Amino acid sequence: MEKPHQRAAVRWRGRGALAALLFAVGVALMPGLSVAAEGDGKNFAWGTQVTRDNVAFEFQEARYANLVVDSSGGESPKQYKGDFVLLQVNITNTAEQPLFARFQPVFRLIDAKGALYEPHEVLTKLVNPPQEGQIAFGDPLAAGQSMQRRVLFSVPKQPYRAVVIVPRSTEKADDGVVTYAGPYFFYDLAPLRSSLPARSARTAPKSP
Asked: Which CATH architecture has domain 4-201?
């Protein structure tokens, strides 16, 4: 029998929206983007290297950041400022074929109440500018190649864990809902917890 933590489904609408991480008991989902994650749902400690479906992860940084980011060069330049959580992860494709963008990892944050937060899409692209020797954002990751990615979340300052899904398949419905399915895991973001006051740190999320 499948354990409750072995399947999760997530849907959210719009940029910066908040969604609940729903386990097998099943609750009505919001329309928008959907992630159906399958796998052991294990929780890994900070500093642990994790491999799922021929994708290896090395979390290099997790910190609260007060940033000002300019989206210059576009049709409508805009300045973003505020409190963010910044993750920096090194990702390696250990398979023998390219890892295309639609199958590249999906990163989310989960808080102590089980609420799930998605990255800020625009700012995540801005903090991953084209650099020599780095894979451009959205490009395939060649077999045996690594890339460094920053993921930016506009979220309250509180403890979080990361939830990482490695899509095995993607599907877009007629209503525009995109579904990613694949194994997932939780990752403890100890540097965030250690930078909070002791009382806040005690509210850190527990493993399911």
From this structure: Sandwich (2.60)
In whole angstroms, give the CA distance from residue 167 to residue 143. Answer: 17
Residue located via tokens 């997790």: 62
Instruction: Name the residue with tokens 């072995």.
Output: 6
pLDDT (tens digit per residue) in 125-170: 888 888 777 888 889 999 999 999 999 999 989 999 999 999 988 7
- As given in the structure block, the two tokens for residue 187 are 């990752």
pTM of the model: 0.72
E strands of the chain, at which residues? 7-12, 18-20, 33-38, 43-44, 50-52, 55-70, 79-93, 106-110, 115-117, 146-153, 161-165, 169-172, 178-182, 184-188
Report how far residue 39's alpha carbon sits from residue 166's, in angstroms, rounded to the nearest whole number. 10
Residue 76: count of CB within 10 angstroms of its CB: 5
Structural domain boundaries in the chain = 4-201
